[in-house]
Amino acid sequence: MTIDNGPGSVPDGNPEDLLVFCRRDGMVICPRCTEMSVYPLKDGRFRCAGCAYTFHDFTGRWINRCKMQPAQWLDLIRLFVDGIPVNKMAARMRASYETTLKAVNTLRLSILAADPTFWPLLNTQGNLKTHCRKGHGGHDDHCLGEHAPVFGLQRYDGKLFFHHLPKTPVNAILSLSLNKRVWKTLVYTDRYQDYDALFFACCSHLRRLFAERWSGGTAFLDNDVSFWDFAENWLPRYRCFTPKCCPLYLKELEFRFNHPPSSWYKLLMQRLCEFVPNPR
Ligand SMILES: [Zn+2]
Fold it and tell me: How far is the CA of 12 from the centre of ligand 1 (A)?
C-alpha cells in the first residue's frame, strides 16, 4: 500500500518498537522451528542454523499480511484504538477503503487468535472460514445456521470472555427450550450451563424465520447493564457487521472491555507481532 504521509496525516510511530515484540528476550527466533540460533544474512534477513529457513523479522506474523510499513501499522493501531470508522481511517491514512479494511481485519484477527479455542475458525491462510453455505441448504436454499460457530459468554471478575464451543451446533441450541433474542445480526440465548449466554450469527433468513417466536422472551444477559452499555457503544461503529465477521467483533469487544484503554496501543502492537496460527 502506498501512503502519502503529507500534511494532515497521522504522525509517524517508532517502528523499532514493533521489533521488540518479534524477539524473544531480544533474540531473533526462527518462525518455523522457534530455534534461537540464527545468523544474519547480508540482505537483512536471517537464516536458521537448525532448519536452514530464511526469514525476516515479520515472517509468519500477522504484521506481514498487508503490504504496510511498520510506521503505517502504528498509525493504523492509533486510529483503531480511538475507534475511528474504517472509511475515516482510510482518509486519514490516504489509503483505499479495501486496503484499510483488510489491515483492520488483520488487527482483529490477531486479537481473536490470542484465544486458541478460536483457531479452528481460521483457514490455512489465517482468514476466517465461511460458514454460511447459502445455496447448499435444504430450507429454501438457506443453511439455517447449521455450520455457524457458537460462542459462550462468561462474566467474572468484572470481565467478559467469549469461548468458541465447537461441540455445540446451532441446531442443538434451536431445539433447546431456552429463550432466544435477536440483536443486530446476532442471536443470543438465556443462561445455559456455565454460560451467561450463548451467541451465534447467521444469515438474515434464520432470524426472519424465528423473530416472532423469539420476540416475547427475556434473557439473563438483558439485565447486564455494563455489558450492554459497552456493547451498544462499540458494535454500532462497525458498518458491515456480517455474520462471518461475528467472532472478530465479539473478541474485539472482549479485548476492549477487559483491558483499560491506556493499554490498548501496546497490547495491539504485541498481538500484531504474534505468529499466525497454522492449523495444519
Ligand atoms: Zn528453524
Answer: 33
pLDDT the model gives residue 148:
87
pLDDT tens for 102-149 read 999 999 999 999 999 999 999 988 899 877 655 554 555 556 667 889
Nearest CA to 91 among 74, 114, 75? Answer: 75
Contact (Cβ atoms closer than 8 angstroms) between residue 63 and residue 70 = yes
Question: Facing residues of 135 across strands?
Answer: none
Q: How many domains does the chain have?
A: 1
Distance between Cα 216 and ligand 1 center (Å): 58
- Residue 133: what pLDDT? 59
Are 93 and 13 in contact, with CB atoms under 8 Å apart?
no
What are the Cα distances from residue 104, in Å, to 6, 60, 109, 184, 199?
A: 21, 18, 9, 21, 23
How far is the C-alpha of 257 from the C-alpha of 160, rounded, in Å?
7
Whether this prediction's pTM lies above 0.85 is answered by yes
CA of residue 25 to ligand 1 center, whole Å: 17
268 in any annotated domain: no
Confidence band for 48, pLDDT divided at 50, 70 and 90: very high
Ligand 1 centroid – CA 72 distance (Å): 29
In this structure, is residue 244 part of a structural domain? no
**Residue 183 CB contacts under 8 Å (≥ 6 apart), including other chains:** none
Cα 46 to ligand 1 centroid, rounded to whole Å:
10
Residue 48 resides in a domain:
yes
**Grid cell locating 89:** 481511517
Residue 240 has a pLDDT of 59
Distance CA 193, CA 151 (A): 13
* Residue ranges making up the domain that contains 27: 23-56
